[in-house]
């Protein structure tokens, strides 16, 4: 099936484009470094590469290791934000801001300087506050999130990798410090250790890029999932989530990512990135070697090539 490039008007095949990208990115292997501060993540094969596109017409195209589950890590912050907005509406913004932080995702000093008020829901401080909010509504935040991904994407695989969860829980010293600062300022209700444990379990969710592209499709389609045949979130919430993705989704590289790719996106230290092209579809990519700030190095190159050649950019 052919797709039209909205910027040039020419027709192209998404399947051919993804296969071309798989070939083009290979020389970039070896330039990044797999996350090893969570010991279990260091065991992944660094040269994996998978990419998938889900279009608003329910066309699903994959290439490379597109069916292999990987650790979603911070990409779960995107689904956590959707769940919290769906459940509590704008209430979460009384605890968490919407501004870019310009600091590392696990930065501590900024949180202390700003009296326990996280800059946005995509830095760890904000994500811990979102998880805390969800804990008042469910005993199993990771399960709630997996349920959303399965329904929205029409997928029946995936789930928590308990070994990765245990590995992060055992080494989450920085996140425990963040959670304690949050508690000291009453930003979270539950005990800091309980919030960190729930957050680490959520981060250890594993799905493939194909599942991920499918599950995020409502963000490209005003909240509707054509794969589930139901509305997963209100259109006004979709706009808000995409706005925060565009301004804070890629850590301290959010500006240069917008410059290179031009799509709202969220990354995780497992090497995944999911990018939303409103009205067109979702692109997900996975390659474990990370750049200096913790974004997939090869994945970013792949998305840059995709945006250039598909014309899928909001800029
Ligand atoms: N679980 C990881 C952490 O909190 C997620 C970080 C990330 O993907 N940026 O450190």
Write a structural description.
With 315 residues, this protein is of the alpha+beta class. It has a single domain (2-310), classed as Beta-lactamase. Helix content is 42%, strand content 14%. It has twelve helices and twelve strands. The chain has helices at 14-25, 76-88, 109-113, 124-135, 141-153, 162-171, 173-184, 192-203, 209-215, 235-248, 254-260, 297-310, and strands at 2-4, 11-13, 50-55, 60-64, 70-71, 159-160, 205-207, 224-225, 230-231, 265-267, 272-277, 281-286. The strands form four sheets. The chain has a five-stranded antiparallel sheet with strand order 4-3-12-11-10, with helices on both faces. It has a three-stranded antiparallel sheet with strand order 5-7-6. It has a two-stranded antiparallel ribbon with strand order 1-2. The protein binds glutamine. Glutamine is lined by residues 73-74, 105-106, 124, 168, 175, 203, 268-269, 294.
Strand order of the largest sheet: 4-3-12-11-10
Question: What is the terminal separation in angstroms?
Answer: 26 Å
- List ligands, each type once: glutamine
Order of helices and strands: EEHEEEHHHHEHHHEHEEHHEEEH
Rg, Cα atoms, Å: 18 Å
**How does the helix and strand content classify structurally?**
alpha+beta
User: What top-tier CATH class fits best?
Assistant: Alpha Beta
Mean pLDDT: 96
CATH architecture: 3-Layer(aba) Sandwich
* Helical amount: 40-55%
Number of strands: 12
Strand content: 5-15%
Discrete helix count: 12
Instruction: Give the biggest beta sheet.
Output: 5 strands, antiparallel
CATH superfamily: DD-peptidase/beta-lactamase superfamily
CATH topology: Beta-lactamase
Overall shape: it is globular
Instruction: Point out poorly predicted stretches.
Output: none
**Number of folding domains?**
1
